[in-house]
Every structure is written in C-alpha cells, then in structure tokens.
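2024-03-11 09:14:02 INFO worker-7 job=invfold-0412 stage=load source=structure_tokens
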C-alpha cells in the first residue's frame, strides 16, 4: 500500500502494483509467456501508470469470488520456487483506481486531447482532469452519456452486420482494434499488427441504457504513416486487427480521443448529475 499524490490530489494508503520488485523475482507463466518483459523504468517507458476506467478496483467481484478468466489476474507465488497459481483477491487488497480514493474530485476523470493531423504528429499534449461536475473546469455540459455495463464496463458496438457486446473506449490502446477482413494487414517488415488499408469506418454504439450513437472514423496506411513520421507517437488513423479469440470486442483506442473530451465516470458515484459507471463525449 502507498500514498499516491497527483497534482493537488491525494489517495492515502491504497493498494498498488510494484513492477520488478526484487523481493518477487518469480514471474507467473501467464505473464512471462505474453509479450516482452517490462519490469524496469526504461523498458516500461514510465515511472508509473494510472489506469483510466469506470471501476474502483482492478477487477472487483470477478477476482474476489473466483478466478474465472483464462489468464489469472492475481497469483500466489511460493518462495521455494514452485509454480505460481491463480488466487482469489478481496476487493480491499486489489490494485485500486486512485481517483476513487481522493478526498474530492473523485467521481471520474476527463481525458482532454487536441486534434492531430491525419498523417500523424510527433506527439499530442493534453490534460487529465480529475472529477466530473465538481469544479468550474470539469462540467459535463452537453456530452452524450454512454452508460456502460455495470459488471463488465463495456458498450455494444454494431459494425456491419455484427454486434460486438464487449466493446469499449480505451485510452490505453494505441490504435483502433477491430476485425475487418476487407482491410489488409501490413507486412512484418513494415508495420506488423496494423492495417495498411485506408478506409472510412461507420459503426453504431448502443449503451447499457439502450442509447444509440453513430461513431465514425478513418483508418490509414500504417506503413506509410510510420515511414513518413519516424519517431512520431500520435497517429489518429492507426488501426489493427484483434486476435481471433476476441470475437466480441471493438476497441475505440487512443486515436478516437484526439479532438475530444472523453469523460470516464466511476461506478457507485454521481458524476454531473448522472450515476456511474459511464463514458461520455
């Protein structure tokens, strides 16, 4: 547990995850088998990470009542070098959203990012605003509320003839991620894991409250964009396919946030006169 201070806000004595701590050298196979190691500041690329989401804890009752996912989110690793095993973790011990533990401005956040040219840019500087409807600079205004599933935090997206009920707006995804067989995936030598086909994408978001909202965006040729702007980090038309196992997900990643103020209201709070959890823009 630790005290977390961000700007003038403070969350006291909350559970955090420490990455690469020398006292916990053993890594669960669920983690070590996926992707590169990111257990140093240099490899991780940051000193810390605040997850932006609608829940107060890491995985709430799902992890407190039983390990129901293919990949365990919490593991117990014996000191004698034995194999790590997935365990239940009470909500009071789960990694928690620090915003929910602030003394004030604790009902959500607003991600505010500027518009970025279609081809990309070196970067994009915006703001993470704490609280919704608690200060003069965080009013909900005329934003459209997208009520999320209270258990999964998801929205339903219709793309073509298919519905994707486990979809989300996720600032932690570096691109749009969705399945579209009409788009070509870039070669391993150019931009592996991304689409190389420019396209206009039209979808419909259906919220947990059955509100519908059209959502459109454009994809670009990832290889051309990356070659034209080497070293750039902001690509508003970057998109890629999801793994075949994620058949129910449409991921509006960080590119969808450019040029918008996206509100993320935390569960069990009143935010701008509306109960969370919800997303809005």
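2024-03-11 09:14:09 INFO worker-7 stage=emit residues=281
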């Amino acid at each position: 547990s630790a005290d977390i201070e961000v700007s003038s806000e403070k969350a006291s004595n909350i559970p955090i995850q420490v990455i690469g701590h020398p006292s916990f050298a053993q890594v669960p196979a669920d983690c070590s088998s996926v992707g590169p190691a990111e257990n140093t500041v240099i490899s991780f690329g940051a000193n810390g990470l605040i997850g932006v989401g609608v829940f107060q804890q890491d995985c709430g009752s799902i992890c407190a009542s039983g390990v129901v996912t293919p990949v365990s989110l919490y593991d117990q690793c014996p000191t004698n070098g034995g194999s790590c095993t997935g365990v239940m973790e009470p909500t009071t011990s789960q990694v928690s959203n620090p915003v929910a533990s602030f003394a004030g401005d604790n009902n959500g956040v607003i991600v505010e990012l500027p518009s970025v040219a279609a081809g990309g840019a070196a970067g994009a500087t915006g703001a993470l605003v704490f609280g919704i409807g608690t200060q003069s600079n965080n009013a909900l205004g005329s934003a459209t509320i997208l009520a999320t599933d209270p258990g999964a935090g998801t929205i339903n997206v219709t793309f073509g003839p298919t519905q994707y009920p486990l979809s989300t707006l996720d600032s932690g995804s570096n691109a749009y991620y969705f399945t579209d067989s009409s788009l070509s995936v870039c070669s391993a030598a150019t931009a592996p894991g991304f689409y190389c086909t420019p396209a206009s994408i039209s979808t419909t978001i259906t919220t947990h409250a059955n509100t519908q909202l059209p959502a459109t965006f454009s994809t670009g040729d990832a290889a051309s964009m990356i070659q034209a702007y080497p070293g750039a980090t902001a690509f508003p038309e970057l998109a890629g396919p999801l793994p075949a196992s994620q058949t129910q997900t449409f991921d509006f990643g960080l590119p969808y946030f450019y040029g918008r103020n996206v509100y993320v209201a935390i569960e069990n709070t009143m935010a701008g006169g509306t109960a969370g959890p919800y997303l809005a823009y």
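2024-03-11 09:14:09 INFO worker-7 stage=report msg="The first strand starts at residue 2 and ends at 6."
2024-03-11 09:14:10 INFO worker-7 job finished
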